[in-house]
Amino acid sequence: MNILLIEDQQRVADFIRMGLGAEGWSVDHVLNGEVGLNRAEATSYDVILLDLMLPSIQGQDVCRMLRSRGITTPILMLSALDAPEEKVEGLRLGADDYLTKPFNFDELIARIEALFRRAKGYALQESAPLIELGAISFDRGSMRVTLDGVEVALSKKERDLLYFFMSNIGRVMSRERILNAVWGVNTDPMTNVVDVYIGRLRRKLGSEGGRIVTLRNVGYRMS
Amino acid sequence: MRSTTFTRLNAAVILIIVLGLGTVSISGLYAARWWDDRVRLSNKSYHEHLLLENNLFRLFKRYEDGLLIGESVSGVDVRALETAIDENIANIRAIIEAEIALVGEEELEEIAFLDRMETEIDMVVTRLATLATTETDQDRKSQLIEVLARRIEGRLADLFAEALAEEIEEMEETEVAAAAFRRQSLMLSVVFLATAIACLVASFVQYNRMIRLPLSRLTTYLGTLREGNYSKPTQLGGATEFQELEEVMSKMATTLAEREATREEQRAELARRVDLRTAELQVMINRLELGEDNRKRLLADISHELRTPLTIILGEAEVALRRGDKLPPHSADALARIRDSALHTNQIVDDLLTIARQEAGALRLDRQQIDLRQLLQDAAEMFPHDIQLTLPDDVSMAPVDAVRLRQAILAIFQNAQRYGGSTITAKLYHAQTGYQIAVEDDGPGMPESERLRAFERFYRGTNAGDPGIDGTGLGLPVVQSIVQAHGGSVALDPAALGGLRVTLTLPRGPLKPAADAPAPVRQA
């Protein structure tokens, strides 16, 4: 994947580049909007990461101009501004997604992937009616979970959590990412709720519970 | 002239006229009686004279007849006639005396006249008597009688005629005098009346000039004064009192005008000062507004400035941790702690921004109609600890920002778990003004002194323990900010269970969100 990063703060760009690079993606970094526009016109990218607070041209204008020049690459806006209007405005101008700083890196990766997949028109794994992993069977239609054919009683949140894991099999997910996806919340002190629920889920899955692996300091992974 | 003088003058004139007319009437009455008496006396005198004359002639005739016949004349009838004659004379005398009493000394000559007549009559009567008694012959007697007769018819008759004429003349004189007197009285009366009318007219004119016109002018003048027109001079005219009044009024007008001028000056001065003060206030307001704008910009700047380094810290730590298998465990732990601290710091920044925005009236809420029961249920489910929920059966819709309100409720749950006991209850009530959410725990609770300070930023109670990575000291302030931004309030009380009771009150209806309020709500 080729990513264009338009970000004026060098230090912010550094870790983004490093992190995305670790995923095997190539990142082009430019420091302002004008250069970014030229680069986007010249080269084809899979995703554009656009910081809103830029010198000279504002991020929103860059977005608008990218679109007006016929560039259809998905744009993910990054901003320290967390007001909902900014978000709505950004999306209205043609961006595809919006992420507030500071963000969870997993989240960034997940969203870039989602944008990429959407652009490429890949059928999402989520569209499959039945997801199976080992003895676990998740029926999306009836929302029933069975373990070796025996139904497991799960609360709604437990079910959402399991679904999230089964949609991201093999991927490492941080607690923040899980919290955001399942609970829709990003508050720091709440992340231990993830631990508690994962504990419950593991118990209910019995032998299959071991599939959910804890990665110290990083997060969880279902394999 | 003073009006009192004028009045007195009028009164005097009236008095004089009344007295005059009175005098004229009364004197007329008295005069009339006098004239009457006069005429009456004259009449009586005339009548008495006629009687006397008649008696005398009868006496003479008697004697004559007696003499001619040759009888002796004596007897009662003669004597009666003589007595009658004496009576007549006495009466006449009395009348004349009465006349003298009435008229005065002018009648004295009448007494003298009467005396003469009396003398004459006496003489005649004596001669007649003597003649009747003397012994003489008839012829001599008839000659003597003849002489007497001539005497009687001559002198006595003249006397009588004179007397009578005198009386008639007197009566006529009296008539004339009376008539003259009446005419005089009439004229006097007319004069008095004319004077009275003239005086009345004059008095009326004077009254008009002296009192009525000045009064109406005074009224007009007072009218102009009332309108605030102090400069017009006035001529009242009229009585002296009005002159005095005029002086007083013009002085008053001058004083009023001066006072008005002073007041105008003071008013102008006051207006100047007010304008000055208003201008100063406007400058202050502008500065405050500018300060407010600066503050808001500062908030935005801070948010940006702080978030960028936090992003870097967090980003670097996370990226490094993703290669956790290549890291020595100590480094991985360290990086994890760095990451957690960065998240914690970010939480504090978010909380501070929330509070600061709400104080500036700039906290934007994404309000939707939400069933609060659902909201509480979500929060309770989300929370790892057990929450005993008590929800009403009725639908509990309210225009709230679900994310923010849930954040507030979770913060309260967090506090209850951290500082309270193991049993946490949450109840939703329908209240008169809106809804109430009450969260209670069975822990040690919070003493009143702490409850008063609980909403201070970074204030942590006595049972807070280490201010470590867990609490920020901003939990309750953030809750208050969020709830107040919704137009509600938070209250802390002792719980029935023994711990702390936190009550959120939220308004029910479609309210103007507090974020739109122009004036910021300042917190203690």
Concise summary:
The complex is a heterodimer of chains A (223) and B (524). Chain A is of the alpha/beta class and 223 residues long.
**How much beta of chain B, percentage-wise?**
5-15%
Going across the major beta sheet of chain B, what is the strand order?
A: 2-4-5-7-6
Q: Which two chains have the most extensive interface, and how many residues on each?
A: A-B, 43 and 41 residues
Instruction: Identify the overall geometry of chain B.
Output: rod-shaped
Helix content of chain A: 40-55%
Radius of gyration of chain B: 72 Å
Gyration radius of chain A, in Å: 20 Å
Q: What is the count of β-strands of chain B?
A: 7
Return the average pLDDT of chain A rounded to an integer.
Answer: 83
Q: What oligomeric assembly is this protein in?
A: heterodimer
Derived structural class of chain B: alpha+beta
Looking at the structure, what is the overall shape of chain A? elongated
Number of helices, counting only DSSP H or I runs of 4 residues or more of chain B:
10
CA(first)-CA(last) distance of chain B: 82 Å
pLDDT average of chain B, as an integer? 83
Detailed description of the structure:
The complex is a heterodimer of chains A (223) and B (524). Chain A has 223 residues and is an alpha/beta fold. Chain A is built from 8 helices and 12 strands. Chain A has a 5-stranded parallel sheet, sandwiched between helices. Chain A has a 4-stranded antiparallel sheet with strand order 6-7-8-9, with helices on one face. In chain A, a hairpin with a 4-residue loop joins strand 7 and strand 8. Chain A is elongated and about 60 Å long. Helix content of chain B is 70%, strand content 8%. In chain B, the strands form 2 sheets. A 5-stranded mixed sheet of chain B has the order 2-4-5-7-6. Chain B has a two-stranded antiparallel sheet with strand order 1-3.
